[in-house]
Design a protein that fits this description.
It is built from 34 helices and 9 strands. It is mostly helical. Among the domains are: about 1-60, no CATH class; about 85-105 and about 135-150, no CATH class; about 215-345, no CATH class. A 3-stranded mixed sheet has the order 2-1-7, with no helix packed on it. Helix 15 runs parallel beside helix 17 (about 325-340) and helix 26 (about 600-615) packs antiparallel against helix 27 (about 620-645). The radius of gyration is 35 Å and the shape is globular. It starts with a helix and ends in a 5-residue tail after the last helix. Pfam families: Fungal_trans. This is Transcription factor. Its main location: nucleus. InterPro entries: Sec_Metabolite_Reg, XnlR_reg_dom, Zn2-C6_fun-type_DNA-bd_sf, Zn2Cys6_DnaBD.
Length: about 850
């Protein structure tokens, strides 16, 4: 056996032995397994190559070769291979960009075989199959890297004023917000008095909610403004009827038993308990929302604002910052919704206040642990469900407010441990009941929407493949069963309100899903229209073009149905008009960029339908009246492109509409209306300064933002003497007070205040010509751009100037650079001349 031991110590194959020593082995000592299987002590099937080596990707080494035992060389070699792959992909991308046609080195037949295959000493099919199964060819790797590189860098608009103020609107901001972002516009309002409130009461409502109100006269005035029991029940019915699709309702038993009866039962003047104070604030907000959608009242009536002010006073009797209850949080949440629904001015100050108020509500919700399930503290099911319903209302409101402004949400799902409650049954006034499954669906979709915002619209740009994946998740999200039309004969207790409810719910479901599609794909639509003007559907982003066109069609179809069935309600809701304006811009973009494609004529038909909707609603809807001039000019531009009256000039690119789509822009506003400051005077002029301070329109404390309204300032005379004091406070008009909770504009009037509300007449006011954000560009012919200074000199009032950078359109480049890809859908809307 000794000779056998000496032979076992001979060098093995792959471990340093040469080929001659392997050939000199005796015939009886041929190994039955391959060298690699012997090294790893694996079972070998004695085939060449064996199954074990084939699975491990080393079929070329079988049967005599083996891999090194240490891991160092293997890791180093893998790192070098990855580095070389990246260099090859970069070189191929550069070669493709510089080549007019397809370079011979970029053809598929030259990249089919990897370098390892060409340099292999073994040409067996086993090795080829093993290599192809574990490695990617340079061409395939470059294709994958190309998709990863073409990402969008659109972070929105940042405006910087000459007084240091700044505002940010992200890439998903609503169109009307971005239109007025670079300039401080005066609200398109009229002077509507608050007949039931005095100046003292409005002054108290102006203060922050964490300041305690101990004015007994104000308390008596607040209680005197409570309506009768009959009127209160009528407004509660309106609140419940519209809560089926506008806001989440409260249980009818809770409102009638624990709020209405609790407050209207004697003694009516006893409001010392915190619960009763917050319940009163909640009841006032129910009245405010009901008055806002009371068809017997004019739109945006002063009574609704009065109830909003009374609710703020009631909350200040027990500041929710220190005494936080579910009723207080629910009242503040309704306040935020009221601010958004009552916002009809072009500057949209109420919507901004809504976003701030929602953030405050989120903070209070965190302070009492609404984001954690009540089961953690062994609360009963009723209390746990009540807390859960309030939290998911806050979550939904915060998610959509943040999405509408393009700002990050305040709630992080990673810290949420609260299940979505099940639908509940709400009793109707006729004795029937209806389910809140629609509201539960909105909470579930808001949860998905939060994930989409984090993945697609965060600071780190995502890839197109990720966008398609998110789009599929939204499309596959099931619709609520309540919006499906009933099959068979209608139930005997069916009414017209049921049809209105189903139609409005279907409208909001369509808006929530399809507007998300629009924001996901509109940047890729602009790139497809820019690269492929003949047929954008053949572009690599052609899927985005078709998705956007179908989403626009669905939004318009749902809005048209809602206008036919519920014209009065839709006239007072801002959201569908806002998204219809975005759809009109998208359609006009398609028409003007690809007028010869098959999408142009159908898009023109849909654009005409949108314009007809706005024209019909001009006299009944303030929102439609504010934007009708934009629709008219878009329609004119689209028809001109179809008839080829105005030749398309690709060199004229307006950065303003590039900003409207959310592209990263920094705007510097100059020549704004400044605010007055007190002059520097001598010590002996103190008496004059003191008297002047009492009636100053530009006082910083009363007007913290420094914004001044021209049409009000013209009526003020600094040299006029102050009005004589009166014994009783006058009926309060609102322009004397800085509505810090409602408006950024405050004016002083010694004879009373005037609340700036929407006019009864919905016609175009003289101030609307200052809101014309596309005037100087849509009137261009032949692509000649008017000088900016000349356009500004023609304006009657000082307009802000926007300093932007317009990226040049590269020619001859097959693959767009990252600088080109960061343009959103508005980069191509710029070709409209807007």
């Amino acid at each position: 056996m000794a000779p056998l031991r000496s032979n076992d110590k001979e060098p093995q194959a792959g471990n340093g032995g040469d080929s001659e020593s392997r050939q000199r082995r005796k015939p009886g000592r041929v190994p039955v397994s391959c060298a690699e299987c012997r090294r790893l002590k694996l079972r070998c099937d004695r085939q060449v190559p064996c199954e074990s080596c084939t699975k491990r990707g080393c079929a070329a080494l079988c049967p005599d070769g083996s891999l090194p035992t240490t891991k160092g060389p293997k890791v180093k070699a893998a790192a070098e291979v990855e580095e070389l792959k990246e260099k090859v992909a970069s070189l191929e991308a550069a070669l493709r960009a510089l080549s007019q046609g397809t370079h011979p080195l970029l053809r598929a037949d030259t990249n089919d075989q990897s370098p390892a295959d060409s340099s292999s000493p073994s040409g067996s099919s086993g090795r080829a199959s093993g290599s192809d199964g574990n490695e990617t060819s340079p061409r395939d790797q470059e294709t994958l890297n190309e998709d990863e590189e073409e990402v969008l860098d659109a972070f929105g608009t940042l405006t910087l004023g000459n007084r240091g103020e700044a505002r940010f609107f992200g890439q998903t901001s609503r169109t009307e917000y971005l239109i007025h972002a670079p300039e401080r516009l005066h609200p398109f309002v009229n002077k509507v008095a608050l007949p039931r409130l005095s100046s003292v009461t409005v002054n108290e409502a102006m203060k922050e909610l964490d300041a305690f109100c101990d004015n007994e006269a104000v308390g008596e005035e607040v209680l005197s403004c409570m309506p009768s029991m009959e009127e209160a029940l009528r407004m509660c019915d309106i609140f419940f009827e519209n809560s089926k699709f506008l806001w989440h309702p409260l249980p009818r038993e809770y409102v009638y038993t624990e709020i209405v009866s609790f407050l209207y039962q004697p003694p009516i003047g006893e409001y010392c308990h915190v619960t009763k104070k917050h319940a009163l604030a909640l009841l006032f907000m129910i009245f405010a929302l009901a008055t806002l959608f009371d068809m017997k009242m004019p739109p945006y009536s002063a009574e609704a604002m009065e109830y909003y002010i009374l609710a703020r006073i009631a909350l200040r009797w027990a500041p929710p910052t220190y005494d936080t209850t579910l009723a207080a949080i629910q009242a503040m949440l309704y306040m935020a919704q009221y601010l958004e629904m009552s916002d009809c001015e072009p500057a949209h100050t109420g919507s901004h206040k809504c976003w701030v108020q929602t953030r405050h509500v989120c903070t209070l919700g965190f302070s009492i642990g609404l984001h954690v399930s009540g089961c953690k503290w062994r609360l009963d099911e009723v209390a746990t469900a009540k807390r859960g319903r309030v939290f998911w209302q806050i979550f939904t409101q915060d998610t959509w407010n943040s999405f509408g402004f393009g700002r990050p949400p305040n709630i992080n799902l990673a810290f949420v441990d609260c299940d979505i409650p099940k639908p509940e049954q709400i009793m109707a006034s006729n004795g029937t009941s209806w389910s809140t499954e629609y509201h539960v669906w909105t909470w579930q979709f808001a949860k998905l929407m939060h994930t989409v915002m984090t993945a697609a619209f965060s600071a780190k740009s995502t890839t197109y493949s990720r966008i398609i994946e998110l789009d599929k998740r939204i499309r596959d999200f099931p619709d609520p069963p309540c919006i499906q039309p009933p099959t068979g004969p209608p139930p005997p207790n069916a009414s017209a309100s049921d049809n209105i409810t189903r139609t409005m719910q279907a409208l909001f479901v369509t808006l929530m899903k399809d507007t998300t599609h629009l924001n996901l794909h509109r940047s890729y639509l602009s790139q497809a229209l820019k690269d492929c003007s003949e047929d954008p559907l053949r572009h690599k982003y052609g899927a985005s073009v078709m998705i956007i066109y179908r989403s626009v069609w669905r939004i318009l179809n749902a809005f048209q149905s809602a206008r036919r069935i519920a014209p009065d309600i839709t006239a007072r809701i801002t959201l569908p008009w806002s998204h219809s304006l975005s759809c009109a811009i998208l359609l006009c973009l398609i028409i003007t960029r690809v007028p010869t494609s098959g999408l142009a004529n159908p898009a023109l038909i849909e654009l005409d339908k949108i314009c007809e909707l706005f024209e019909e609603a001009t006299n009944t809807s303030q929102i439609a009246s504010n934007n009708i001039h934009v629709l008219r000019k878009l329609r004119k531009q689209a028809h001109a492109a179809i008839s080829r009256v105005i030749a398309e000039d690709a060199a004229v690119v307006c950065a303003e509409l590039d900003r409207l789509g959310g592209r990263t822009q920094l705007l510097h506003t100059v020549n704004e209306l400044g605010f007055g400051c007190y002059p520097i005077v001598r010590r002996d002029d103190r008496t004059f300064v003191s008297r002047q301070k009492e009636r100053s329109v530009f006082e910083t404390q009363a007007n913290p933002n420094g914004y001044v309204q021209g049409f009000v300032a013209e009526d003020q005379h600094m040299d006029d003497p102050p009005a004589p004091p009166v014994a009783n406070p006058p009926a309060y008009d609102a322009s004397e007070i800085d509505f810090d909770f409602m408006n950024d504009v405050a004016q002083h009037n010694p004879q009373g205040c005037v609340l700036q509300m929407v006019p009864v007449d919905f016609g175009q006011g003289p101030n609307m010509q200052n809101v014309d954000w596309i005037q100087s560009f849509l009137e261009m012919t032949g692509g000649a751009q008017q000088p900016q200074l000349q356009s500004q000199s023609q304006s009657q009032t000082t307009q802000p100037q926007v300093q932007v950078q317009v990226a040049a359109d590269p020619q001859g480049a097959t693959v767009p650079t990252p600088a080109e890809m960061d343009a959103t859908w508005q980069a191509l809307v710029a070709q409209l001349g807007i």
